[in-house]
Amino acid sequence: MASQRDIKRRIDSVRNTRKITRAFELVASARLRRAQERIEALRPYARAMRRLMAQAARQSGSLTGMPLLDERPEVGRAAVVVITGDRGLAGAFNVNILRRGYQVAGELRADGAGEVSYVAVGKKGAGTLRFRELPTDRVFQGFSTEPTFADAHGVVEYLVSRFTEGELDRVTVVYNEFKSALQQQVTEEQLLPVPRQVIEEDEDEETESEHTFSKALAFFEPDAKEFLQQLLPTYLDTTVYRALLESAAAELGARRTAMRNASDNAGTLIGDLTLAMNRARQAAITQEILEVVAGADALS
Fold first, then answer.
1. pTM here?
2. pLDDT tens digit string along 193-214?
3. CATH class of 4-27+261-299
4. What residues does each domain of the chain span?
C-alpha cells in the first residue's frame, strides 16, 4: 500500500491538473459564445448568396465557359482539404476529421482518381499527415479558433489557382460542422468544381423554415452570366470561411466538453485518493496502537 505522503502528493498533483482543465473549460466557453455569434451572422448571408447565384444561373441560360464550373470527365488528381485545429485537448475532434479525410481519399481513388493529396488547414492535421508520410501539398495554420475572411481567401486562392491551371481536377473539403456545444458533425463538401446543384437550386426551396427570402425578380448588369462568373470566387471564399467558422466553434465546443469531463474525472480521482489516504492513516494509527499494547504487555 502506498504511504500517506505518496497519496497526498498524488492528490495535490490531481488538484493542480483540475485547476488547469477548469481554466481551459472557462476559456473555451467564453470563446464559444463569440464563435456561435459569428456563425449565426454568416449563415443568412451564405443562403442569400446561393439564391442569388441560382437566379443569375436561370437568367444566364448557358453555364459554359466558366472555369470554376468545369466538370472534368476524368479525375486525374484530387485534393482533400482537412480542417483541423492548431491545438489538442479537444477529445476526438481532430481524429474524426482525419479519419473521414482518409475515407474520402479512398473513395476518390475508387472512383478513378489517379493521385490524391491533402491540404492541411490546422497544425494538428498537418502533424499527423506528416507523421503518416501522406502527400501534403500545402499547410495553413495559426487561425483555427479565430479565422478571418482573409484566411479563407488565402486557402481558396491557392486551390483555385491549382484547379484552373489543371493541376487539380477535384477538391473536397472535410470539416466539423457545429451543431451544438455538445455535438459536432463531420461534413464533407465538394468545393471544386462548384457543383451544379449549388447554382440550380429550386427557387421555391426553403433552406430554413424560420427564414423567408424575397422572390422578386433580380436584374443583373451588364448580364447575368458575367455577374455569376464574378460571384463564383466570392461564393468559394464564403464557403470556406463558413467551414472555418463551423470548425472553430466545433473545436471550442469539443474542448469545453473534454475539459469538463477531465475536471469531473479529476474530482472523482481526488475522492478515491482521499479515501485511500484515510484508510492508510487509519491503518497507521491501528498499527501504532498495536505496538503500544504489545509493548505494555511485554513490560507487565
1. 0.81
2. 888 887 776 544 444 444 444 4
3. mainly alpha
4. 4-27+261-299, 31-255
